[in-house]
Structure formats: C-alpha cells, structure tokens
Design goal:
By secondary structure, the protein is α/β, with parallel strands linked by helices. The protein has 18 helices and 14 strands. A hairpin with a 3-residue loop joins strand 3 and strand 4.
Length: 438
C-alpha cells in the first residue's frame, strides 16, 4: 500500500497544480487513504489529454503498470498494478469527461467543476452534485440507491440549492417530481432535455457513444488467465490468492474449471443417447480412466474443442467485453500436459498445433509446477513417473511464446508475485503501445 499512497499523493499534487478537476465520490481520506474500489475524477477532456502523458510518466516513475486501459465517449479508465518483493498493489482511476448515460447527459460538467470544493488536499464535487450524479445515474438504470449513500440522500431533502440544480440540469422540478415519474417518462425527459438544450452537442455525443460501444465490443479490454500443472503444484491456492488480489478493483470475474461446459460431460452425453448404461461420477480420482485409442481420443478432442469454441462466444467473451477477468483452473493446455486426466492420448506436438488452429486462446497461460518430491509431499494423486511426464510436457510448452512457466517451490505469495508481475508488465506493454499509436 505504501507505493499506492505515494503515487496517489503525487498524482493529486500534479492535478492540483495543472488542471480543473473534482473527485466525484468517496473522497474522504484521499490521497493517503483510498477506501473505494476506484477513484472517480471529473475533468474536462481537453485538460486530461494535455496532461495524460505526464500522468503516465508518474505511473511509470512509481513502478506501476497499466494493467487495463479503457476508453469511451465519457471515461478513460486506468487500472494500475504493482507486483514486486512479495507485494501486490492495485489502483483504479476513472477519469470522467461528462456524466452521461448511453450518450445522454445527466449533468453539465462545467457547472459541476465550477462548484467544486477544496478540502486542503484535493478538489471534490459539492454535496449537491455528489448526490445528483449517483442518484440520476441509478434512476436511469432502474437501480436502487445504495444504503451506504443513504445519509447523503437524507441530507439533500431540505437542501435549498438542489431544486435549482435539478431544474437547470434535467428540466425536472425537484426530487419529489422525479420520484413520481415512471422509468420510461424519466428517461424520455432526460433525452428530450439533452437534445433541447444543446442539440448539436448531443448528436455528436450520441455518435461517439455508438462508435465507442461497437469498437469496445470488438476489441475487448478484459483478459483471461489459465493455470495448468500437476495435482500438488499449488494451483488452487495460487488461484485463490490471485482472485482475491484482482477482485480489489475488478468487480466481476469469471471462474471456470477445465472448459466452459456449455456441453455436458462426455459420459453424461453418452448416457443420454443410450451409448452407455451408466455415468462414472468418481470425480475425486481424475486419472481413473483406461487408456483410449487414437480414434477414441480424437473424437473426445473434437467434442471438447466444440465446447471451447461455443463456450467462448456464449460465456467467456461477454466477461472480456465487460472489462472483466476470466480465470481457468486448467484449460485446453491440460489436455496437452495431462493426457490421463482427459483420456486424450495423442502426440504432444499435434495437440499443441491443433490448439493453435482451433481453440480460442487465453491471454496468459500459466504453467505451474514443482519437482516431483515437492509435489508428492503436498498431494499423492500422481506417482513419480506421472509427475515427470507432465513436467516434461510443460517444459515443451514453456518454450512457446504464449506460455509462462512458474516453479512453485517457495511460498505461495512468491509464486503469485512472479505471475502477476509477468501479467502486469505484459499488459502494460500492450497498453503503452496502444497509447503511442492512437
């Protein structure tokens, strides 16, 4: 946390001296104490774009990486990550240029910034605009106003300035009037008011919203991580720690085991079509199956591949398009590394090439392992020969550019730091490249 406090202090010092900005909510304690998942800052677009390169230099100066970079018509999001010396730190900045929903303005950003207040360390919005920003957004989205902000809502009931601000920004008379409106009438009122006040500006904003929406749907900003390795390598522990660390800023994550499972297990599918009379559900022994021949193995491979392909578009892609993270405890890579588990006994090189051609790839494939003695001391689900066979295939994969080998012989935190450092740095390289070519 020390690194994030230093970075936050420096960024706010820089913003104080060079821009007109205001923190929208959860600003108490900043910059020394950040209690929220993200830091929402309202700033004029031209001001931010003029300062963006300096802000990025500060990020790099404090050894943070840009893990996620997202842009839309109203917001630039920076998720920053630090991983070193068994320490992991994450911060999210949301730089808002307006307070629109689906391209329709709720508040006039200049009015919000003109009424900002300074608490001695940072600039923040007035209580009236802090309330209206959250209230109007949630009303438009048909969501309940959060209990944690209820005291602010109560404070606004007798606020003499609030009705004037509501009238100027939305066209409605007051909160009581808005409360009585149906969702459709409220939305219609916002849309009409937006076009009535500044029609040309609203048309431009609507076009920008649609353009960014289509672009961000195609070029997603989430990322996926798969973990593969022998039982006893520490995958479950590592995944649990990484999930906990990333959930500090990523509000939703998809977690899957081996495959998306839009198709049933092969045994269940065979039972449904009467090919087999019963289903083997002895899942606590994943290496129980007999060795299969090449034809049987290939048919199993085709079936699983269909699940990966269908599951990617049905289940995985929506997470990624929503800037979320997908984590797989085993993925297609497990078919290559552990043929006994999947009962797909085909040549390693063939499986690797087949995967490159047909299987939707993950952004990061983590190969987690240890030497046989260490694994056997942790869990005795494989014998020495089985562990060495898997490790041999992991070594083969580790020479491919899209795989990252981690030897988990130390503490879990050491492995987590090593893995996240690799991911953060790779994400940073991609995002810096995007920034330099915009």
């Amino acid at each position: 946390m020390i690194n994030s406090i230093k970075l936050l202090s420096r960024i706010f010092e820089f913003l104080n001296n060079n821009s007109k900005y205001a923190v929208l909510r959860n600003y108490d304690g900043l910059p020394e104490n950040n209690t929220s998942r993200d830091i929402d800052i309202l700033i004029e677009r031209k001001d931010f774009l003029n300062l963006e390169s300096e802000i990025i230099n500060l990020i790099i100066e404090f050894d943070f990486n840009i893990v996620t970079l997202y842009k839309s018509e109203k917001i630039y999001t920076y998720v920053l990550g630090y991983a070193s010396s068994n320490k992991v730190d994450l911060i999210q900045f949301d730089f808002f240029f307006n307070t629109s929903i689906y391209g329709f303005k709720l508040l006039n950003e200049r009015s919000v910034l003109n009424s900002r207040q300074f608490n001695g360390k940072i600039y923040h919005v007035s209580k009236e605009f802090e309330f209206l920003d959250k209230y109007l957004q949630l009303k438009f989205l048909n969501r309940t106003y959060p209990i944690k902000y209820e005291n602010l809502k109560i404070d606004m009931q007798d606020n003499v300035l609030l009705p004037k601000l509501i009238k100027e920004n939305t066209g409605f008379e007051n909160i009581a009037c808005i409360e009585e409106l149906s969702l459709n009438k409220f939305r219609k009122g916002i849309v009409i008011n937006s076009f009535r006040k500044k029609p040309l500006e609203q048309v431009v904003l609507t076009v920008k919203f649609l353009s960014f929406y289509i672009y961000n749907s195609i070029f997603y900003r989430g990322f996926s991580i798969g973990f593969t390795g022998p039982d006893g390598a520490g995958k479950t522990t590592i995944i649990d720690i990484i999930s906990k660390e990333l959930s500090r800023v990523y509000s939703s994550m998809g977690y899957f085991h081996f495959r998306p499972k839009v198709l049933p297990n092969i045994g269940e599918a065979a039972h449904k079509v009467k090919i087999t009379s019963d289903v083997d559900k002895n899942y606590h022994n994943p290496h129980r199956g007999k060795r299969t021949g090449r034809l049987n193995s290939f048919l199993r491979l085709v079936y699983y591949s269909l699940d990966y392909i269908l599951g990617y578009f049905k289940t995985i892609r929506p997470y990624l398009s929503n800037r979320s993270i997908v984590i797989f405890d085993r993925y297609y890579t497990d078919i290559i590394a552990d043929s006994r588990r999947s009962r797909i006994h085909l040549p390693t090189k063939f499986l690797y090439r087949f995967g490159k051609l047909f299987i939707p790839k993950l952004d990061y494939n983590i190969l987690l392992t240890a030497n046989a003695d260490t694994i056997l001391a942790r869990k005795r689900e494989l014998d020495n020969a089985g562990i060495n066979s898997i490790n041999s295939k992991l070594n083969f994969l580790s020479k491919k550019p899209e795989y990252f080998l981690t030897i988990n012989e130390g503490t879990a935190n050491e492995a987590v730091t090593e893995i996240l450092k690799e991911i953060f740095e790779s994400q940073h390289h991609k995002n810096i490249k995007r920034l330099s070519t915009r």
